[in-house]
Amino acid sequence: MSDILRQQIERITSLSDTEFEYVLSHFVSKKFKKHQFVVQEGENVPNDFFILSGCLKSYFTDKNGKEHILQFGMKDWWITDYEAYYNQSIATINIDCIENCELLCLSFQNREKLCAEMHKIEHFFRKKTNKHNVALQRRILSLLSNNAKEKYDQLLQLYPQLFQKVPKQLIASYLGVTRETLSRLNISSK
Amino acid sequence: MSDILRQQIERITSLSDTEFEYVLSHFVSKKFKKHQFVVQEGENVPNDFFILSGCLKSYFTDKNGKEHILQFGMKDWWITDYEAYYNQSIATINIDCIENCELLCLSFQNREKLCAEMHKIEHFFRKKTNKHNVALQRRILSLLSNNAKEKYDQLLQLYPQLFQKVPKQLIASYLGVTRETLSRLNISSK
DNA sequence: CGCGCGATTGAGTAATTTCAAATCTAGTGG
DNA sequence: CCACTAGATTTGAAATTACTCAATCGCGCG
Question: A114, A153, A125: which is closest to A22 by C-alpha?
Answer without folding.
Answer: A114
